Amino acid sequence: MDYIQVSLAEAIPEQARDYASARIGSLDRYAPDRVDFAWVNLTADKTVIHAHARLDLKWVEVQAYAEGHTVTEVIDLVRERMRRQLVSMRDVLVHN
């Protein structure tokens, strides 16, 4: 993956940047085409952490959103949602 940008709200610990980069960065193996850019935004309100992620492929954008109570939980949830989308896209291309 060429580039991953991780934005953290004040309430999110700095260690979350490395975890998000590693987890989202590993998605390129599932992509049907090269991933040019990845963006992850982690925010929090009083009781919930929110993760919004986007991958820009050569010809399409893949997005996912998740919320939960821990940083690792929301990053893992958003990663799994993106992974399913990428696998589905790859399967469609292979069968066409």
From TrEMBL:
<dbReference type="Pfam" id="PF02482">
    <property type="entry name" value="Ribosomal_S30AE"/>
</dbReference>
<keyword id="KW-0689">Ribosomal protein</keyword>
<keyword id="KW-0687">Ribonucleoprotein</keyword>
<protein>
    <submittedName>
        <fullName>Sigma 54 modulation protein / S30EA ribosomal protein</fullName>
    </submittedName>
</protein>
<dbReference type="InterPro" id="IPR003489">
    <property type="entry name" value="RHF/RaiA"/>
</dbReference>
<dbReference type="InterPro" id="IPR036567">
    <property type="entry name" value="RHF-like"/>
</dbReference>
<dbReference type="GO" id="GO:0005840">
    <property type="term" value="C:ribosome"/>
</dbReference>
